[in-house]
Amino acid sequence: MADEHVYSQNLSLDEIVFENRNKEYGAYDIRSQYPRLLTKSFIIGTSLFLVAALSPFIYLTIKNLNAPDKIEVKSDLVNIIEEDPIIEEPKEEEPPPPPPKEEEKIEVIQNVVPEPVKAPKIETPPPPISKQLETTTGLQNQEGVKAPAYTPPPPPPSTGTRTSTAEVKPQVSDTQVYSEVEQTAEFPGGINAFRNKVSSNFDGSSMNGDEGTVKAEITFVVERDGSITDVKANGKNSDFNAEAVRTIKSIKNKWTPAKINGQSVRYRFRLPLTMNFEG
């Protein structure tokens, strides 16, 4: 009689476990199909992970393939031609009030007349009769005693105060923006250094590239502390004007302020700007 506990080598573990049992029970089917289901789940899960991981790269690849060709814009700074400065008509300013007039000081010299002192009367005795008889009387003129010549006193010295005239300089306003000054505002290194900074910081990517030569007049105010405010660009191309204003504002170097009578004042600076854009 064959040993019942000796199993064939071709039997699986599930067949050995469920031998002489009800194999129609669901547990046998689950255990027999588990390896196939595990392999199928692993393949599906790996596929979904790869699709989720590679989706951004696939999207960027498709976007780069459908993207239009880049247009290169060549922008070269043309030599800026210095134009004659625009001279604004000076605004009519109210003249400063005249300085108060100093009244001439008149010094009064009072001549003090000394009080008269009564002099004693000197009585001269008459000459003797013999001398009186010698006196000749008649039509002959005789010279009398001449009185000393009268010399008027010298005039009193002039005591009038001398009036000196001094130049009165006009008052300088701290808020007014001047266009004509004695000493103009200067950028460190000169105006050429300022133009080089403008050309190096100018971003031409906002231009289309087929504008050709573009011109604009840049105006800004150099404050009393050397900072720049009120930057404006006057030109036909709005994109060029906006980029020019941005470029001027990005330069943080302070200027040497303009001066009037040695005092720092607000000064309006004008800069013509010309650039060439070729596609």
Walk me through the structure:
The protein has helices at 13-17, 26-66, 129-134, 191-201, 238-250, and strands at 74-76, 177-178, 212-222, 228-235, 258-260, 263-278. By secondary structure, it is of the alpha+beta class. Among the domains are: 13-65, no CATH class; 74-87 and 173-278, Fusion Protein Consisting Of Minor Coat Protein, Glycine Rich Linker, Tola, And A His Tag, Chain: A, Domain 2 (2-Layer Sandwich), CATH 3.30.1150. The longest helix has 41 residues, at 26-66. The protein is rod-shaped. The model has no long low-confidence stretch (mean pLDDT 75). Residues 84-103, 144-174 are annotated as: Disordered. The chain crosses the membrane at residues 42-62. This is Energy transducer TonB.
